[in-house]
Amino acid sequence: MQCITYLFDKKINLCVIFDMSTFIKYRNDSTVSVDEACTKDSVTYYLITVNVGPVKWTVRHRYSDFDELHDKLVSDHGVAKELLPPKKVIRNKTPKFIEQRREGLNDYLKNVFNYLKLTMPYIFAHFLDFHLYDIYFLLQDLAKKFFLEGDKLLLNEKSHKFSPLELHAISERFKMACPATEKQDQMYDFSHVLDFCSQVNSLSIEGSYEVLGTSNIVPNDLKFDLIPFKTLMDLKILGVPMGCIQSVGSLRDTLVSLSVLIASVVSLNEFLLVDVVHKDPSSLADTVTWKKLSVINFASNNIKNVDWAIKLVPRLQQLSLSSNRLSDLCDISCLHDLRALNLAMNNFSCCDNWHEKIGNIVKIDLSQNKVASLKGFSRLYSLESLDLSCNLITDIEEVQNICKLPCLEYLWLTANPVASSIDYRVKVIEQFNARMSEICLDNEKASEKEIDTARVLQALRIVKEGKTPSFLENSNTTHNFHKS
After folding, report:
1. Any idea which of 9-13, 159-163, 360-364 has the lowest mean pLDDT?
2. Helix, strand, coil abundance in the chain, percent, nearest 5
3. 9: pLDDT confidence band, cut at 50, 70 and 90?
4. Among 101, 84, 83, residue whose Cα is nearest residue 92
5. Strand blocks (E) in 158-279
6. If you ran DSSP here, which 8-state letter would residue 111 be given?
7. How many CB atoms neighbour CB 378 within 10 A?
8. Residues 64-87: pLDDT tens digits?
């Protein structure tokens, strides 16, 4: 009753494309058969095909497995003892005998299945792998796990991993009335699953387009929602299409960190507005704002533009869009808290006037792009770290565009054409004038020797420009200068 109340309180409206296996629904449209036998390492296995509605899978068992099951079904569930084909010690490996046994096991399994179809005992369901592919029996196992280990898991795990199948099963279970075969043992109650989900703080979901086990189930064809997760703060989604997610529930009020990786996403609003029907910006209310979300990672997707949906994350501090298809940066100055921006491995070549597009940014990663000029960063006065490794910067004088940034401490130019020039490090450091000892270039601060040489170059530059180098008043520097 608890699960039904929960359902109506939240007014859940679920719709799935792939009608996942549930024996409760397809009881009269389910079959089992022993279709073939195979021998491996002198051991004979019998292949069982299970069909439950649109879903099918195979199970492999030895005769001894059937025998062990039969003993328990006879003692606990009233199955006739003589139903199982008898054992045979001599000449039980001949092809003729194996085929006769297969036929006998096929008849046995069909009879037992029809006899136990209404009650479907736990032991029989497990023998047929219902706990791996059927919603109801899968959730029984999940409930047992959380009943026995839930508190320990919540205490020790940094992130609990749910499969799309498990999430789909939870979502589908809401639509089912408590079935007649519901286990009376409290250990198997669905409420344990809901209780565990409501306390999970960090969730990981990994999808796949490969069929699951021996079944015809494709995880990424399954729909699910995230409504049961009431206190979720960290969500990691790997390889799951956003179309699989029907609702984010209360995540807009609780989520702090979000990662959506290798999911073929082309727009941020595929997740940020995943459960919103009308995505017109003018029609959206404050209810779709992500109130606590401060870290977003959409790496390794197909994003070409950062669209208006980014405004739905006003407290965003870290944004990673590495390994996408971006070539231009839109105006994200509305993100007043944004401090770190990762745009590595995209298609940026021009970064003009980025001070007009970004607020008080502290860290930018533009490694592995096609940037050739540093002019666009010249007015990012709060910038502390700039990674431009593996770009197309050729002129050492480009550093003049950023050498006056008052907070810049970390700079990466390695793997640019300029980095292969003679005295590259010294020539870069020299342009930072009085701050040359503070700069960490390519992950390494300047040595005393590099600083001394840089001061010499600086003095020569100043003299060439017809000015008097003020630091020549320092005796040590003057000595080194004249010595050179």
Report:
1. 9-13
2. 40, 15, 45
3. very low
4. 101
5. 160-162, 202-206, 234-238, 257-261
6. H
7. 16
8. 999 999 999 999 999 999 999 988
Predicted confidence (pLDDT) per residue in 361-408, tens digit: 999 999 999 999 999 999 999 999 999 999 999 999 999 999 999 999
Please state, rounded to an integer, the average pLDDT across all residues of the chain: 88
* Residue 21, pLDDT score: 61
Q: For residue 133, how many other CB atoms are within 10 A of its CB?
A: 26
**Cα separation of 55 and 30, whole Å?**
9
pTM: 0.86
The two tokens of residue 190 are 């669905």
pLDDT tens-digit profile of 261-306?
A: 999 999 999 999 998 876 777 667 778 999 999 999 999 999 999 9
Q: Residue 462: left if φ>0, alpha if ψ -120 to 50, beta else—which one? A: alpha
Query: What is the distance between the alpha carbons of residues 92 and 100, in angstroms, rounded to a whole number?
Result: 10
pLDDT at 431: 93
Three-state DSSP at 309 gives helix
Give the whole-angstrom CA distance, residue 441 versus residue 427: 11
Determine whether 336 is exposed, middle or buried from the number of CB atoms within 10 Å of its CB (0-12, 13-18, 19+): exposed
* Cβ atoms 367, 391 nearer than 8 A: yes
Residue showing tokens 């109801």: 136
Strand 444-445 and strand 410-412: pairing? Answer: unpaired
How far is the C-alpha of 216 from the C-alpha of 251, rounded, in Å? 32
CB 384 within 8 A of CB 407: yes
Q: Are 87 and 62 in contact (CB under 8 A)?
A: no
Q: What is the pLDDT of residue 287?
A: 80
Cβ 363 vs Cβ 339: under 8 Å: yes
Are residues 12 and 173 in contact, defined by beta-carbon separation less than 8 angstroms?
Answer: no
Phi, psi of 160 (to 5 degrees): -95, 135
